[in-house]
Write a structure and sequence with these properties.
- By secondary structure, the chain is of the alpha/beta class.
- The chain has 2 domains: 172 residues, no CATH class; 158 residues, Alpha/Beta hydrolase fold, catalytic domain (Rossmann fold), CATH 3.40.50.1820.
- It contains 13 helices and 10 strands.
- The strands form 2 sheets. The chain has an 8-stranded mixed β-sheet with strand order 3-4-6-5-7-8-9-10, with helices on both faces. The protein has a two-stranded antiparallel ribbon with strand order 1-2.
Length: 395
């Protein structure tokens, strides 16, 4: 989730509120029209006239809007479940937490949830999730790589089970410092840093702040569906969003912080009526996904605090790792989605060109959640890259 997404959050949220308001207004109009004057009784009585008439149309429209506002997701599920691949009953992604837990207290007052999977002496992989999600995003990697690797996942501050920083510092620099602390969980063994979306931005910021750790503490990087600069510059429609950044996006992000409870309510309504699922499918998936994957990716949205999301988006607007790319001297795997509208594949191509020890392996067809849609292929790419970095012979 990047700063331009704030427009979609408000659009779908206001539409959801409007559906409830419209439904209640139409229901009230029907109720008012259903009272008729009875001369014999010399008073008004409630006598609705059901049938093919205007009065009944008001009631039907009211019920339709209210049902859609609170249960439209059932219809969306029916529709999307039929248009995509059949749901996978064997291994649908789930928000599971079964690893060994460590809690890291940070100088800003936040407390990070860190979970470790796999053998204690296994080569470490440290996974940083996308913004608005949490560490359970890594369901497939945890399931399939923890036999041989020490898979370390963490919740970014304010998301999942990690608490918020008391100073509300969601800058990429502060998040990269958190990543450095998580790296300490791996001990003295070199680790691979893998980041999705903002996770990749945090990883590149880490490379700028802690260059001495490359090669000594970090054996390789995996940059998944991410960018090297302010994501507003590398989103589909970047020219328009760049023009809107200061006059519209920034004020709207601050408004989201001030009205966080209202936006949280709107997010829940969008989730219940299915518009959140439609938005996730449009931006995240390329047509070969399952309903389970759409539902999984969407399930994070109503759980995250809008104030936290907005502060992180404001932090992204100040991000730029362009100059850092040429300083990276360790093996790097860049994984774009060939149709990703959130982080255009051109951004990944730029990273591939600038980072000399980098290889580019796109997922196709894929958008921003290609790592879920093509999870088997993605896991294979990461595993093969890790074997190369750690010089492990696959078994």
């Amino acid at each position: 989730m990047i700063p331009s997404f704030i427009l979609a959050i408000w659009f779908w949220g206001l539409l959801s509120l409007g559906a409830i308001g419209g439904g209640l207004y139409l229901a009230w109009e029907w109720y008012q029209r259903a009272w008729v004057y009875q001369p014999t009784l010399e008073r008004y009585v409630f006598d609705p006239n059901f049938g093919f008439n205007t009065q009944t149309a008001w009631l039907v429209a009211a019920l339709g809007l209210l049902i859609w506002a609170f249960a439209g997701g059932l219809l969306v599920r029916l529709f999307l479940g039929r248009t995509g691949n059949a749901p996978s009953p064997d291994d649908p992604p789930r928000q599971t937490r079964e690893g060994a837990v460590q809690r890291l207290l940070r100088p800003d007052g936040s407390e990070l949830q860190v979970e470790c999977y796999g053998p204690v002496d296994g080569p470490p992989l440290i996974l940083t999730h996308g913004w608005g999600m949490n560490s359970t995003e890594w369901y497939y990697l945890k399931q399939r790589l923890s036999d041989h690797f020490r898979v370390i996942v963490w919740d970014l501050p304010g998301l999942g089970l990690s608490t918020r920083p008391k100073n509300n510092d969601y800058s990429l620099e502060n998040l990269a410092s958190d990543l450095e602390a998580v790296l300490g969980v791996a001990g003295n063994r070199p680790a691979i840093l893998l980041g999705h979306s903002i996770g990749g931005m945090i990883t590149l910021t880490f490379c700028r702040l802690f260059p001495e750790m490359l090669r000594t503490r970090v054996a390789g990087l995996v940059l998944v569906h991410t960018t090297y600069t302010n994501p507003v510059r590398t989103v589909k429609g970047a020219k328009l969003y760049t023009a809107l950044e200061r006059p519209l996006l920034v004020p709207l992000l601050h408004l989201t912080i001030w009205l966080s409870p209202l936006v949280w309510l709107m997010n829940w309504l969008s989730y219940l009526n299915g518009t959140a699922h439609l938005s996730t499918k449009q931006s995240g998936f390329a047509g070969t996904e399952t309903w389970d994957q759409i539902a999984f990716a969407t399930s994070f949205q109503p759980l995250a605090s809008p104030a936290v999301l907005a502060r992180g988006m404001l932090g992204m607007l100040e991000y730029d790792a362009t100059a850092t790319l040429r300083t990276i001297n360790i093996p790097t795997l860049v994984v774009p989605g060939d149709r990703d509208p959130v982080c255009l594949p051109e951004a990944s191509e730029r990273m591939h060109q600038e980072v000399k020890p980098a290889q580019l392996i796109p997922l196709t067809p894929a958008k921003h959640m290609g790592l879920l849609e093509h999870n088997e292929r993605f896991v294979e790419q990461v595993e093969e890259f890790a074997h190369t970095c750690f010089q492990i012979i696959p078994t």
